[in-house]
Specification:
The structure holds two protein chains of two kinds.
Chain A (H helix, E strand, L loop, with lengths): L2 H15 L7 E4 L10 H6 L8 E11 L6 E5 L6 E5 L15 E13 L10 E13 L1
Parallel strand pairs in A: 4-6
Antiparallel strand pairs in A: 1-6, 2-3, 2-5, 3-4, 5-6
Chain B lengths: L6 H31 L8 E2 L3 E4 L8 H11 L8 E6 L2 E6 L2 E6 L4 E5 L2 E2 L3 H8 L6 H21 L11 H22 L3
Antiparallel strand pairs in B: 1-7, 2-6, 3-4, 4-5, 5-6
Classes of the chains: A alpha+beta, B alpha+beta.
Chain lengths: ~140, ~190
C-alpha cells in the first residue's frame, strides 16, 4: 500500500471512531431488556432484587472523575441515590453527564463492607448496580 | 538481477516500516501511560479545582425553594438544569458542564467547573479506548505492529551489538523487572 493511502486510511479510521454528535449517548449494551424499577423501590426492598438484572433511571449526581468507571443516579425519593459501577474501561461515563438524565441497566448487587477499626467505621451493607449498559440524555 | 531471499533484509524492512507507522501513537500512549500510572495521586484527564464561596445561611425548605434561594445568594446565571439533595441541608445544582454543591445551613458552596487537561485528556481518551468502535480495531492493529517492532528489533543487528552480543544483556535487563514483579506477586498473592 502506498504511504499516502496508509495515512488516509488511518485518518478515516480515526474519523469513524469519533462518537457521533447526538443528544442521547449509549454506553455498553445500552438499556431496554430489564424491567424498569424505581430506585426507591430497589433500596426499600433490596432483598427482592439482589442478583437480578434491573433498569433504573435518574439524574446523574456524580461521576468518577478519574476513570469514568461509575456514576451515581438520584432516586425518585429525596436523599437517596445509587451508584452504577462498571469495570474500568468497559464504559467510560463522561464528566459532562452530571445533571443529565440517565437510564442504566445491570445487576443489583449487595456489598458487605467490613468494619474498619482504623477509620472508626462499623460494618456496612452497600447496594449498587453492576452496570452492563446505560443511556445518557 | 533478482536478489536472493534474505530474512534479515525482510526483518529490517518490517522493523523500519512498523517503526514509522507506530511512531505517532507510541508517543501519545507514552504520554498517557505515564499520566495514568499516577492516577491514584492525580487526575490526569480533568482539572477540577473547585472554588469555595460563602453566603448568608439559608432556611432548609423544599428543594425548589432552596435551589432558587441559592441561585440568588450566589448570583448564579439562572435556574439549573437539575438539582439534588443528599441531606436536608445539602443541595446540588447542575448546570451544563459545571455544578454547585452547597450546605445552606453552613453557608458554604463549592463551585466545580471540570476542565479537560490539554493534550493529556486527548491522550487518555485514546489510550483508555474511550472511542470504542473502529478505534478498537485500529488500536489492536497498533498493538500487533508494536509487537512486530519489538520482535524484529531483536534481530536487526548482528555481531557484538546484536542479540548474540550486548543485545542479549540489554534484552534481559528489560525483562528482568517484569519477571521480578510477577514472581513477587506469585509468592505474595493478594
Amino acid at each position: 500500500m502506498r504511504p499516502a493511502a496508509t495515512t488516509l486510511l488511518a485518518i478515516a479510521a480515526i474519523a469513524a471512531a469519533s462518537p457521533a454528535l447526538s443528544a442521547e449517548t449509549k454506553y455498553g449494551s445500552g438499556v431496554g431488556k430489564a424491567d424498569a424499577v424505581k430506585i426507591s423501590e430497589l433500596l426499600g426492598h433490596p432483598e427482592k432484587y439482589v442478583g437480578k438484572a434491573v433498569r433504573v433511571e435518574g439524574i446523574v449526581t456524580a461521576v468518577c472523575a478519574k476513570r469514568g468507571c461509575w456514576m451515581e443516579l438520584a432516586s425518585d425519593k429525596e436523599f437517596q441515590s445509587i451508584k452504577v459501577k462498571v469495570d474500568d474501561g468497559v464504559m467510560v461515563f463522561p464528566m459532562e453527564a452530571k445533571g443529565k438524565v440517565a437510564a442504566a441497566e445491570g445487576v443489583f448487587t449487595r456489598i458487605d463492607v467490613p468494619a474498619d477499626p482504623k477509620a472508626g467505621t462499623g460494618p456496612e451493607i452497600v447496594y449498587r448496580i453492576q452496570g452492563t449498559g446505560a443511556v445518557i440524555r | 538481477m533478482k536478489r536472493p531471499w534474505n530474512w534479515r533484509r525482510l526483518n529490517r524492512a518490517v522493523h523500519r516500516d512498523a517503526g514509522y507507522l507506530v511512531a505517532g501513537l507510541t508517543l501519545v500512549y507514552a504520554v498517557s501511560g505515564v499520566a495514568v500510572n499516577h492516577k491514584a495521586d492525580w487526575n490526569s484527564s480533568w482539572s477540577l479545582a473547585p472554588e469555595t464561596r460563602r453566603f448568608a445561611p439559608l432556611p432548609v425548605t423544599d428543594r425548589d425553594t432552596m435551589a432558587a434561594a441559592l441561585v440568588a445568594a450566589l448570583s448564579l446565571p439562572g435556574p439549573p438544569r437539575s438539582s439534588f439533595r443528599r441531606a436536608p441541608e445539602q443541595i446540588e445544582l447542575y448546570y451544563d458542564g459545571w455544578s454547585v454543591e452547597a450546605d445552606v445551613t453552613a453557608g458554604v458552596a463549592k463551585v466545580t467547573r471540570p476542565r479537560e487537561r490539554p493534550v493529556l485528556r486527548d491522550a487518555n481518551y485514546l489510550h483508555l479506548n474511550e472511542p470504542k468502535g473502529a478505534w478498537t480495531w485500529f488500536a489492536d492493529a497498533y498493538g500487533v505492529l508494536l509487537g512486530a517492532l519489538a520482535v524484529t528489533g531483536l534481530f536487526v543487528l548482528r555481531g557484538r551489538n546484536g542479540l548474540g552480543g550486548r543485545g542479549k544483556w540489554l534484552a534481559m535487563a528489560g525483562i528482568l523487572p517484569v519477571l521480578a514483579v510477577l514472581v513477587w506477586r506469585w509468592v505474595n498473592p493478594a
